[in-house]
């Protein structure tokens, strides 16, 4: 998978609300009502990651979730990251 340049990344980010490009990754964060809700969403995201064989760098503290996506193999952001970001958005809105 080919690494995208910053113009391509910014173009794709226009379709993703709340995500930004930082340090060779696309990033976002979410706040939930409590830990249980955060972890429920994380579990759903985890299954989607397995299906796509693409995995986030993420961290959770109580009700907050920070997600960072990049493609280690390509050393930057690729369309795999945007595919997973879109899936994450779909999971969030379906909650
Ligand atoms: C061997 C396996 O396909 C690779 O390690 C996959 C797994 N998940 C991955 N996830 C992410 N975010 N980047 C990768 O380059 C990547 N590579």
UniProtKB/TrEMBL annotation:
Keywords: Lyase. It comes from the Bacteria. InterPro entries: PCD_sf, Pterin_deHydtase. It holds the Pfam family Pterin_4a. It catalyses: (4aS,6R)-4a-hydroxy-L-erythro-5,6,7,8-tetrahydrobiopterin = (6R)-L-erythro-6,7-dihydrobiopterin + H2O. The keyword Lyase applies. Belongs to the pterin-4-alpha-carbinolamine dehydratase family. GO terms for molecular function: 4-alpha-hydroxytetrahydrobiopterin dehydratase activity. GO terms for biological process: tetrahydrobiopterin biosynthetic process. It comes from Muriicola soli. This is Putative pterin-4-alpha-carbinolamine dehydratase. Its EC number is 4.2.1.96.
